[in-house]
């Protein structure tokens, strides 16, 4: 890490993490992208879920220019970002047993679909139960998490397991426990989290792999264009019309 400004040090830390996941997670990324492509080619639907700040990376691949039109956000009350008041309630809800199953019961998720679950720690009841319940319903699960948490924290799920234990594919973000890259004698706590940068990069790499995998099979990937370029809105409307039965964010 450089001895430069705090901004330099953060960028160095983030770039180092991105290089690690590029080099060390190449096979899981390829497997995750192939799983998504398999699901699309077989007529399945795609969903992404994250609680709190983990929801940011999930939302980043939904209704996104340059992204797969079939990726839908699986939302749980009080967990989509930090919009619930007080914000601490979202963290509390993530630890409630039974909530994930209730969310899945009221969702369109069904056997043959794929679900990407983003959870940095992977230790709370919500992501663990969601992965377990989804797989029991015949859904393929991709987990995006920091595997390090499973070695140095206790699970908050009654099973004693973590998100990583209930996935078909696991993408390890390599984020250190505590999610803060910088320390300074004059700052009383570690600071400058990089999980959103790295997790979003993993998600986009996975989607890029899925799009390429579909194209290699002769299947045109249902991609969205920016609505802020000429012809973009018309392009997207055609995609929505063709794949409307697998898109839920327009209903």
Question: Please, could you describe this protein's structure?
Answer:
This protein has 251 residues and is of the alpha/beta class. It has 9 helices and 7 strands; from the N terminus they run ααβαβααβαβαβββαα. It has helices at residues 6-24, 26-41, 54-59, 88-93, 99-105, 125-136, 149-152, 195-216, 232-242, and strands at 46-50, 71-73, 114-118, 140-145, 169-172, 182-184, 187-191. The chain has a 5-stranded parallel sheet with strand order 2-1-3-4-5, with helices on both faces. The protein has a two-stranded antiparallel ribbon with strand order 6-7. β1, α3 (54-59) and β2 (71-73) form a beta-alpha-beta unit. α1 (6-24) runs parallel beside α8. It starts with 5 loop residues before the first helix and ends in a 9-residue tail after the last helix. The relative contact order is 0.19.
